Amino acid sequence: MIRIEGLRKTFYGRGHPVTAVDGVDLTVAEGEVFGVVGRSGAGKSTLLRCVNMLERPDEGRVTVDDVELTALREDRLRRARQGIGMVHQHFALLASRTAADNVSFALEVMGVPRRERAARVAELLDLVGLTDRAGAYPAQLSGGQKQRVGIARALASRPRVLLSDEATSALDPDTTSAILNLLRGLTQQLGLTILLITHEMEVVKRLCDAVAIMREGRFVESGRVDQLLSRPGSQLARDIFPLGPVPTVPGHLLYDITLAGPVGDETFLSDLTRRHDLDVRIVAGAVEQLEAARAGRLRIALPGSAPGLADGLRELRAAGFGVEEAR
């Protein structure tokens, strides 16, 4: 649905050139929710703006729904953008228009007739649960309600692709949870493909099927969430399930165990203890049911002199657990 190949974007200011996106490749499958995670300045927003061509990349290709946007002239690009909805961090609502009029504005720009606009606006506000707030102005709406208006507006043209620019970062935790539930429901109900950028791991845990971690304009890790979490040394696993500093346990070696998907069997430690006569101590850990898989990380201490240590670790790796020495 979305394919990015060799994307590069450099900005030139008073100082040295800054390459915001540096040779990025990305594929988002139809119906997938793909998250790009990184700190401020990593290049996430520039990448997103290149997808709908609000920023023209210096190099590379962007293809959305089998249309290569980087090859289109401005008139055809405007039409192609109607298939791409955009949800903004700070809502970007018109203060002088009601919730209904903000949604209607997107349809006005497209030249949709008034009667058809009214029916579509009513449908969209019902879809996001705001029928009773149609006449309210942005100043009269909560943050979550404003974002629901923004989502309704983004869906006005019946897009197949939705881009989300930090859609929950200005919201409190409870409202964030409600918006994430709404987005997941809309994905399933409307068959949307979503590319979102965020710095919040809660968004990845609750919403994303796949993810890329971005640093200094490049992806340092990319793939399906469950596959990344089960990979030894995964940065995503470290970010989602931080285990803190490594303590000293006299006479023991410490290992970080990553579990994801079907290998998340709660009995594995007791089985390991019984079969290999190992004294297993859990030093730290967290296990959660994520959107993509049940996953977590445990830090365990194993006696360094135990005869069954090597066999136990080998068995864990063979069963699909990520195993690495804690550092």
Q: What does the model show?
A:
One of its GO terms (molecular function) is ATP binding. Residues 2-241 form the ABC transporter domain. Pfam families: ABC_tran, NIL. With 327 residues, the chain is an alpha/beta fold. The chain has two domains: 2-229, Rossmann fold; 235-325, ACT domain (Alpha-Beta Plaits), CATH 3.30.70.260. It is 33% helix and 29% strand. The strands form three sheets. The chain has a six-stranded mixed sheet with strand order 6-7-8-3-9-10, sandwiched between helices. Strands 2-1-4-5 form a four-stranded antiparallel sheet, covered by helices on one side. β7, α6 and β8 (193-198) form a beta-alpha-beta unit. The longest helix is centred in the middle third of the chain and has 18 residues, at 173-190. 38% of the residues are buried.
What is the secondary structure topology, with strand pairs?
Layout: E1 2-11, E2 18-28, E3 33-37, H1 44-51, E4 59-64, E5 67-68, H2 74-81, E6 84-87, H3 99-109, H4 114-127, H5 143-154, E7 161-165, H6 173-190, E8 193-198, H7 201-207, E9 210-215, E10 218-224, H8 225-229, H9 235-240, E11 252-260, H10 268-276, E12 281-289, E13 294-303, H11 309-318, E14 322-325
Parallel strand pairs: 3-8, 3-9, 6-7, 7-8
Antiparallel strand pairs: 1-2, 1-4, 4-5, 9-10, 11-13, 11-14, 12-13
Helix pairs in contact: 3-4, 3-5, 4-5, 5-6, 10-11
InterPro entries: AAA+_ATPase, ABC_transporter-like_ATP-bd, ABC_transporter-like_CS, ACT-like_dom_sf, MetN_ABC, MetN_ABC_transporter-like, NIL_domain, P-loop_NTPase
GO molecular function: ATP binding
Keywords: Amino-acid transport, ATP-binding, Cell membrane, Membrane, Nucleotide-binding, Translocase, Transport
